[in-house]
Design a protein that fits this description.
Length: 248
């Protein structure tokens, strides 16, 4: 999450508190007092994430519609009061990507930001053309293809989406909750138990590849990480294999 530029258009005290917590984890936060000021800020300095309170004042829905057609903001998270379903729906239709219900808890915000930034290329078709490479593995999200040393490896669409999310994490661990939410937003919802089966299935397939240099590591209580052996010369030559049924 280091270096992520995040703009808060929230109540002043809440913005100050969240900015402080963001700096502690290496993010680059900034603040706006109105939706209109948020637009002005991103026009001068693009941001990765905008967090916007729908009751801040000004015209938040109009701001969302403006931001929907700009490349100055990666993803938009709205903040709403409990029970304001119609407001959330209107905001999502106007261009928001996700929402948080008050009170805003920083850990939940971080989890949502991580999910949306991983999913962002899926939300923007023009950006899904870029192939992802890790070790000998090449993931082509646009054409739903995975190759190893030029040979195509058969994976299901759900498995390819999991591989894509893990690859975009660039060697960092991704929590099961983030993966489940990403799969749900990518219209491939599964249960937590099924996620473990899917990951085990991918891991086994990776291990069976010719001259495989890529594997999935699991850290209990943390999540999953897609790693290349070539990037970790001192690590063991095998990756952990959980004893789950390969039924995905």
């Amino acid at each position: 999450m280091k270096g992520i530029r995040i703009l808060f258009a929230l109540a002043p005290q809440l913005s100050l508190e969240l900015c402080s917590e963001c700096r502690e984890v290496g993010m680059a936060p900034s603040r706006a007092s109105t939706p209109e000021e948020a637009i002005s800020i991103v026009e001068q300095q693009p941001v990765d994430v905008l967090v916007l309170d729908l009751v801040l004042g000004g015209a938040p829905l109009k701001a969302l519609r403006v931001l929907k057609h700009t490349s100055s903001v990666g993803v938009v998270i709205i903040v709403t009061d409990p029970g304001s379903l119609s407001a959330r729906l209107n905001a999502l239709r106007s261009g928001a990507h996700d929402y948080l219900i008050k009170p805003v808890i920083f850990s939940k915000l971080l989890e949502r930001v991580q999910t949306l930034l991983m999913l962002d290329p899926l939300l923007r078709p023009s950006r899904t053309q870029k192939r992802l490479e890790i070790g000998s593995l090449v993931i082509d999200p646009r054409h739903q293809r995975v190759t190893n040393l030029g040979d195509e490896i058969r994976f299901t669409p759900t498995q390819i989406l999991v591989l894509e999310v893990l690859a975009r994490a660039q060697g960092e661990f991704v929590s099961p909750e983030v993966l489940l939410q990403t799969l749900s937003m990518g219209r491939r919802p599964i249960s937590k138990n099924n996620l473990e089966v899917v990951v085990c299935s991918i891991r086994r397939r990776l291990r069976s590849m010719k001259e495989s240099t890529v594997g999935i590591s699991t850290r209990r209580g943390v999540g999953y990480c897609l790693e290349s052996k070539s990037e970790h010369p001192d690590s063991p030559k095998t990756f952990p294999l959980e004893t789950l049924t390969d039924s995905a």
